[in-house]
Amino acid sequence: MEQKLDLAVAKENFVAACEKAKNVSLLQNAASAFVAAEVVQGLRNALTPEVVNAVFVPLANTKIGFLTDRDPAKGYSGPEYSADVIRDAIIDGASIGLLPIGNQMNIIAGRMYPTKEGYTALLKNMGCKYKIYIGTPQFDQTKDHAQMDFSIRYWLEDGKEEGYKSAVSVSVNKNKSGYVVSSEDQLKGKAERRAKKQLYELISGCDLGEAADVDSMAIDLGTAEEVRESKEDALKRKAEKMMQQDGGAYQQNEKKPFIGANGNIYEYNESLKKYEDSGRQPE
């Protein structure tokens, strides 16, 4: 006789596993590996195939849940992510304190990707209060990227005020005619995510990494122009290297989208037989 899924028990197990996982990324001692292994195993036990299919698969591609790059509503015609991929992404997120709700994480190219809302949650979990001031976009000559200066003031639980100034380069969306379609608010939203990512990694000492590592590097305000030029060269070389890798960039032979070195989603163009920059970033 088939056993009926007890969602109340499943909920209790998942909540307990997430609570234990909340601070595992902040552990910096010899026992960290053992604690992390215990947390991951607890999440795997809680996220059975039945639970994932009943609770978390319906949350995919919804703002109340989490977004992916396989959204039929945005024109994707292939298979959506399997329950196994969704489970592993949730485990990766929960292990650092992210939840599969409120768009705290995206699944891009089969991997978990923290969002602006995700870094907001992580900073809140650390008891960090902050204010971020973001300047107006400074476009490069091609208007493919914009430099965004920002300053941060933050306070931890001890009440001591700290702060710093920095800048990031964010990608700019254009239409087919080459006109910029990214609004200032959208560009500031991208910069805000990068700023919160920097702040989280500064306080925690944990670099979560992402495919956009080069693009998310801080710019020295004193040499912004020189750094921006070298960054663009580095992005081009990295993209070319990725395309030349065996099997193609991020499973190119399977024509899956992937996050490029500039943080944008690259999609395969069947007519041109190559990957192209979509101009979009994970939301």
Structural notes for this entry:
- This protein is α+β, with helices and mostly antiparallel strands and 283 residues long.
- 36% of the residues lie in helices and 18% in strands.
- It contains 7 helices and 10 strands.
- It has helices at 7-21, 32-46, 49-56, 83-94, 116-125, 184-204, 224-244, and strands at residues 67-68, 105-108, 111-114, 129-134, 138-139, 145-155, 161-171, 258-259, 265-269, 274-277.
- Strands 4, 5, 6 and 7 form a 4-stranded antiparallel β-sheet that branches. Strands 1-2-3 form a 3-stranded mixed β-sheet. Strands 8-9-10 form a 3-stranded antiparallel β-sheet, with no helix packed on it.
- A hairpin with a 5-residue loop joins strand 5 (138-139) and strand 6 (145-155).
Taking the sheet with the most strands, its summary is:
4 strands, antiparallel
Order of helices and strands: HHHEHEEHEEEEHHEEE
Q: How much of the polypeptide forms β-strand, as a percent range?
A: 15-25%
How many distinct beta strands?
A: 10
- Alpha-beta classification: alpha+beta
Average the pLDDT over all residues and give the rounded result.
79
- For the terminal residues, how far apart are their CA atoms? 44 Å
- pLDDT under 50 segments (min length 5)? 211-236, 244-253
Put simply, the count of helices is 7
The percentage helix is: 25-40%
- Rg, alpha carbons: 20 Å
Query: What spatial form do the alpha-carbon principal axes imply?
Result: flat
